[in-house]
Write a structure and sequence with these properties.
mainly alpha; c-terminal domain of poly(a) binding protein
């Protein structure tokens, strides 16, 4: 007795077309083009999840650097003084403080310059 695979075939095609929903032109409803589009989209998504982390870290550094320059020191000097003073705040938190609470950031700078 032979095994017919029509159900699995249709299910896989449905999955592909569902994943390609919203794509432009033939990539949303032609199986061969949709497969290629999904593969490439997945590759881009994977790569950009890594790049997003890099971009955010760069943004945090820019924010901290701008706030540190208002207090008369560069980013690298500020980070070095933080390490010497053993202040364990990461760049994400520091950038949020610098952007949203400038008074608190200036008190951190004051504590760091004393040490």
């Amino acid at each position: 007795m032979r095994v017919k695979r029509g159900v699995a075939h249709v299910k896989h095609r449905k999955y592909i077309l569902k994943a390609a929903k919203g794509f432009k032109w033939g990539r949303k409803n032609q199986i061969r083009k949709a497969k290629t589009a999904i593969t490439k989209a997945g590759r881009h998504a994977y790569r950009h999840r890594k790049l997003k982390k890099r971009d955010y870290r760069a943004l945090w550094q820019i924010r901290i650097g701008a706030a540190a320059r208002e207090h008369g020191m560069s980013y690298s000097v500020f980070i070095h003084k933080l390490k010497v003073a053993k202040v364990d705040l990461d760049r994400k938190v520091l950038s949020q403080i610098a952007a949203e609470q400038p008074k608190l950031f200036s008190s951190i700078v004051a504590k760091v310059t004393k040490a």
